[in-house]
Predict the 3D structure of the following.
Amino acid sequence: AQSVTQPDIHITVSEGASLELRCNYSYGATPYLFWYVQSPGQGLQLLLKYFSGDTLVQGIKGFEAEFKRSQSSFNLRKPSVHWSDAAEYFCAVGLPNTGNQFYFGTGTSLTVIP
Amino acid sequence: NAGVTQTPKFRVLKTGQSMTLLCAQDMNHEYMYWYRQDPGMGLRLIHYSVGEGTTAKGEVPDGYNVSRLKKQNFLLGLESAAPSQTSVYFCASTRTGTGQPQHFGDGTRLSIL
């Protein structure tokens, strides 16, 4: 069965520190991969996506993610975290031939210490 | 740009009552989705639609019904609300084709007493 795992439920970092959020997926073929961010009381906003090609993708707000086929991972990174980055982050897999259904991870909550 | 609009934003129901959540998108998207979000469980797909007049079950469809009579609207119904349906409900839409990013509404917070 397809699945998306975000092993870190909650992460705390200091403002200005680097950040890496982990995401692993289980799927037979290379899926379409996404990272979304959710601020409190808001819907999900797309940060970045990977379809094919260059395995390092750039997104909005200074985020990037690297696709590693051998590890079935798609980790999200940011070199220097800002207080406004505090939010919930979701990794998602888009499945072909399913009406573009997504499978979401359970999310990682990020706290930023001033 | 309105994008995806959900109505209402908050609602409190008593067990056994019925209600309909409305999702409207102005992006001419073919595909639409209803999710529920519960603590520690991420987003789970309830029902989805790949076009006007079509609907399909997702991961957790029991207790819900949907309709897509117009391309821009996707309705989620609870016929007899139960406390287990207390959740935050999100609607999303996307263009046709695999791998297109989903666009989300701001959610409806529903409490069943």
Chain A has a mean pLDDT of 92.
